[in-house]
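Standup notes, structure subgroup. Blocker cleared on the 2-phosphoglycolic acid input:
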Amino acid sequence: MSLPELIVAGNWKMNGVRADLAEIEAVRAGIPASCKAGVWIFPPATIIGAAAALNGGMHVLTGAQDCHAKDSGAFTGDLSAPILKDAGAAAIIVGHSERRSGHGETSREVKAKASAVLKAGLPVIVCLGETRGERESGLAASVCTRQLADSLPAESTPENTVIAYEPVWAIGTGLQATTEDITAIHAVLRAELAKREGTGGQRWRILYGGSVSPANAAGIFESGEVDGALVGGASLKAASFLAIIAAGAQALERRKS
Ligand code: PGA
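Run returned:
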């Protein structure tokens, strides 16, 4: 597995029916051939198969938003990593704050889910981030460091795992962390990842998420610490998602030149 240097990922959350596959088609059609950024879309599980068939081998990778930690069994309504892989998922998100808060998922459970994704042979995006109260108390860095340590399985490497820093207060609120704040947390996370790996940590992909939009994406990608974005609301429509992809592709071009 080798991950793209910069990833623009769209998390559709509980939005999207078959009619919305047209948006994915439009994204695919709108990505310039020269684009080096990875484009990943995470629609509801019900349309993963159709989206993956649509994308077949092209620029856009289709993934799932969550999975169960077990491969199979008596877990009514749940979906496992092997089941999602069979349906066409080529990556899985775990630990999104809406899972942590809405479903009481702990970092320990997130770690077990991440392990299951890796065991299925898929890359995993592990999400973490502080609440508004934690940030206001000056605890953002320590909370994120703790979540990273507790959520990442031992088998995670820069080749199979992507980190998404998503401050909870910035998700779906229109409130955006400043590029300085994002850079600071990413640097802290990278230093922790470097300790695990024994190198500079540069090979790890750390995405930012939280109200990323066509208006702020270029500024966020200016930070050399940011290896892409996990986009919610602005990924639902091809036009706004394509604008963010373009900003990512341009940032990548600049870094390479
Ligand atoms: P948002 O969501 O872009 O709508 O804030 C981001 C996310 O939850 O991944």
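Discussed briefly. Residues 179-197 form the longest helix (19 residues).
Next: hand off to the docking folks.
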